[in-house]
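Researcher: Sequence recovery benchmark, item below. Answer with residues only.
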């Protein structure tokens, strides 16, 4: 192990201390695989500092003091795509490297991602380096020094234990990779791991680039929601005051304000004794309407919504309150970074293979454009966004080979209306109005009111298939009785026996084998850790069956979107385009492009998305919609 620094404070025997990178570069340049790690003063690549940079392999480790040694001489080595760079949590290190050196690295392998792929579906599973080392090497790593770097910025004097800790992380990474490679081969997960490693750089670029936000637009929307919230709250208090049923909750006397009228004073006094933010108080209030009510859970309240208008008003109030708390001024206070942008962080491998994001969760930004339009492109740039059209429906059609679905998707018919016609038969035909587009324009979506209701029911099933929807869930979604939901599902599968057979096969495979896979060529595996050959727990059996039906659909979609990210990123870099990846939400990928190149990029981006789809759906059934806009849109 060699420590490279220009500081003279360290005088310790047992390690080699040098003042330049010559030996490091000479050794590393001769290798085809290198391990890399960093130690930083914090977790924010924009404002925190890179303190130590470690590179090497199991035989030799070089720990570089970044406070005294510039890393610029390492740039050719780091950019050399013929050398595989092994990390644990590559996105973190990548962002600090890119911020410090202004380079984008290629050909990476992330032991954390590989571990996530190998153990996908297993609960309470740690992907930390220490847990990974213990599983593969039987080695216990001391993490005592892990947090010792936090907050160090000036006059940094590294201790021997810090240096040894930094070197150890590099020393074991290639050994872990060797062990993982064997497990990856046994489970035939080579292609999935390769996809995740390539995709990690696209996710890292999105996190690094961030997405700009117009604070004034955001705050104006928040202010409007805040006003709605106040009106709703006053309406709720007024309902208490005006209904004798709630008399016990009204103060017997009240103080009349000099500045308010009598009604406002009564509301203000009521606010001092009763709060709609208190579930306990609201439950007591609603028990005067329904004594059997034992909570104010939203789904439960929906079942008694018609018993009193205050319940529906309260549900709306809580929805607006949640919206304001999540996306009001506090959103900017929490998440707006020093560069004026929002930088989310992705969890790249969920149980289904999909991704989630946090700090903030950009996938939960309300889908309507009121909030999304507050996110803006950089000066001189516009958004170019592309999403797969009916991605999950195309996956179901391909998996089931249902001829009706395939024909509808191939010919541009409205699939939900086509399905409704077969499910409801004469009810559908009798519901047609004189100007019905379904019958006059190649089975297009029409505006017939009765058709709309029937279409909505079938649409809920079509999309619910991708989530293993049960009759109970359909009943809740459509607000119909359980027998009605069961009858609707039975009619549906009578009309579409191939889809029923497809889903049944998936469910049977998962419950028989304890795992399920996504479509070829990836074959991502999701394990069911509570599975047993002869299961007695029918609740768990049902959970496995539902997951076995939805994972191949959602997971195949995730594989496809990740491949699209990889292809798009590669095309941008190889052609040195004025384009940046800035966001992805499920089946949508968002870039910003210089306005002068926007029209060309729109065509290229659409072609790249559809090329990615061909890997899984080779018949070309799946297309993409690509649009240009000044702000982020759904």
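Model:
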């Amino acid at each position: 192990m060699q420590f490279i620094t220009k500081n003279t404070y360290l005088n310790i025997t047992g390690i080699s201390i040098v003042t330049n990178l010559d030996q490091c570069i000479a050794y590393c340049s001769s290798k085809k695989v290198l391990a890399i790690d960093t130690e930083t003063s914090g977790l924010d690549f924009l404002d925190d500092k890179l303190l130590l940079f470690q590179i090497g392999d199991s035989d030799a480790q070089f720990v570089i003091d970044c406070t005294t040694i510039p890393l610029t001489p390492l740039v050719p080595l780091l950019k050399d795509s013929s050398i595989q760079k092994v990390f644990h949590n590559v996105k973190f290190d990548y962002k600090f490297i890119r911020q410090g050196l202004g380079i984008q690295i290629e050909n990476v392998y992330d032991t954390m991602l590989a571990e996530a792929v190998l153990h996908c579906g297993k609960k309470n599973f740690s992907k930390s380096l220490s847990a990974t080392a213990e599983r593969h090497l039987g080695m216990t790593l001391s993490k005592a020094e892990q947090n010792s770097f936090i907050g160090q910025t000036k006059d940094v004097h590294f201790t021997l234990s810090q240096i040894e800790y930094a070197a150890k992380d590099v020393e074991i990474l290639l050994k872990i990779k060797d062990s993982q490679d064997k497990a990856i081969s046994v489970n035939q997960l080579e292609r999935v791991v390769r996809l995740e490693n390539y995709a990690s750089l696209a996710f890292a670029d999105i996190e690094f680039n961030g997405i700009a936000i117009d604070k004034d637009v955001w705050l104006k929307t928040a202010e409007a929601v805040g006003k709605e919230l106040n009106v709703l709250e006053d309406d709720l208090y007024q309902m208490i005051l005006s209904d004798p049923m709630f008399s016990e909750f009204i103060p017997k006397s009240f103080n009349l304000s000099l500045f308010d009228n009598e009604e406002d004073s009564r509301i203000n006094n009521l606010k001092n004794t009763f709060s709609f933010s208190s579930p306990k108080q609201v439950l007591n209030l609603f028990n005067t309407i329904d004594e059997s009510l034992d909570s104010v859970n939203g789904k439960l309240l929906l079942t008694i919504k018609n018993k009193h208008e205050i319940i529906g008003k309260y549900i709306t109030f809580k929805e607006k309150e949640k919206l304001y708390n999540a996306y009001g001024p506090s959103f900017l206070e929490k998440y707006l970074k020093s560069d004026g942008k929002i930088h989310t962080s992705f969890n790249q491998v969920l149980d289904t293979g999909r991704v989630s994001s946090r700090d903030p969760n950009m996938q939960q930004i309300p889908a309507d454009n009121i909030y999304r339009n507050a996110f803006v492109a950089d000066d001189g740039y516009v958004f170019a966004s592309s999403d797969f059209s009916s991605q999950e429906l195309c996956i179901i059609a391909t998996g089931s080979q249902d001829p009706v679905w395939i024909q509808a998707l191939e010919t541009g018919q409205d699939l939900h209306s086509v399905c409704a016609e077969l499910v409801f038969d004469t009810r559908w035909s009798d519901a047609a109005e004189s100007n019905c587009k379904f019958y006059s324009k190649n089975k297009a979506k029409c505006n017939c009111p009765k058709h709309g209701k029937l279409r909505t029911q079938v649409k809920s099933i079509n999309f619910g298939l991708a989530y293993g929807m049960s009759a109970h869930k359909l009943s809740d979604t459509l607000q119909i009785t359980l027998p009605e939901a069961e009858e609707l599902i039975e009619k549906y599968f009578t009309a579409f026996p191939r889809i029923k057979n497809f889903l049944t096969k998936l469910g049977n495979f998962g419950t028989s084998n304890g795992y399920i896979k996504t479509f070829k060529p990836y074959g991502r595996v999701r394990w069911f850790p509570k599975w047993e050959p002869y299961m007695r727990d029918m609740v768990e059996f049902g959970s496995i069956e539902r997951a076995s039906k939805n994972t191949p659909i959602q997971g195949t979609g995730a594989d496809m979107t990740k491949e699209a990210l990889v292809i798009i990123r590669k095309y941008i870099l190889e052609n040195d385009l004025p384009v940046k990846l800035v966001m992805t939400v499920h089946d949508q990928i968002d870039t910003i492009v210089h306005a002068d190149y926007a029209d060309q990029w729109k065509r290229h981006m659409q072609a790249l998305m559809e090329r990615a789809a061909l890997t899984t759906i080779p018949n070309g059934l799946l297309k993409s919609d690509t649009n240009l806009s000044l702000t982020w849109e759904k």
